[in-house]
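Consider the tokenized backbone below.
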């Protein structure tokens, strides 16, 4: 698993190989079973952030009427940073749930800050990674808003086809903003 992290770091950093290796040795990697909640809606936010090495994590919230709304799926080489920016006095407005067995890098804010002081380039690397993630998220959101349900499904096929096999259809439909029945109809028409 550490090789995956090393390869990913090389995309964003000019750290020397021995510095990268030292950082990787300090990083905490944990395994989580399918069905594990990293955080539940209504909990106080964690100061942890996560990076997916293996597996799939679903972000969702439950509306007042009881309807679950999936807002994201995080898979290999994706960071889950959304909960580190919430105010400590506010409860989390969504849940993070392992859809598959997962292997995640788990970092807390304090240890991250210590590593930034020790490895100055690490902070720049994290910023570049976050800028890339933010640009991608903004692009995907704008495209999602402009798209019809059929176009959203086509986009999933093109950009994240692995989700079709990895997540239940009702969760995928929720992520696309449609009902499972509508998703079935779209799939049928496209065949």
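A designed sequence for it:
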């Amino acid at each position: 698993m550490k090789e995956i992290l090393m390869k990913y770091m090389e995309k964003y950093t000019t750290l020397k190989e021995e510095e990268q290796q030292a950082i990787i040795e300090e990083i905490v990697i944990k395994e989580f079973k399918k069905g594990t909640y990293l955080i539940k809606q209504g909990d106080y936010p964690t100061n942890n952030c996560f990076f997916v090495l293996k597996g799939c994590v679903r972000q969702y919230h439950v509306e007042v009427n009881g309807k679950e709304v999936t807002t994201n799926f995080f898979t290999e080489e994706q960071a889950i940073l959304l909960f580190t920016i919430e105010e400590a006095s506010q409860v989390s407005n969504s849940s993070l749930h392992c859809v598959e067995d997962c292997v995640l890098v788990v970092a807390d804010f304090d240890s991250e800050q210590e590593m930034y002081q020790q490895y100055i380039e690490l902070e720049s690397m994290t910023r570049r990674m976050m800028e890339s993630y933010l640009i991608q998220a903004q692009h995907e959101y704008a495209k999602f808003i402009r798209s019809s349900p059929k176009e959203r499904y086509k986009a999933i096929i093109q950009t994240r086809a692995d989700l079709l096999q990895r997540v239940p259809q009702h969760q995928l439909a929720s992520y696309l903003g449609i009902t499972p029945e509508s998703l079935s109809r779209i799939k049928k028409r496209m065949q």
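The radius of gyration is 18 Å.
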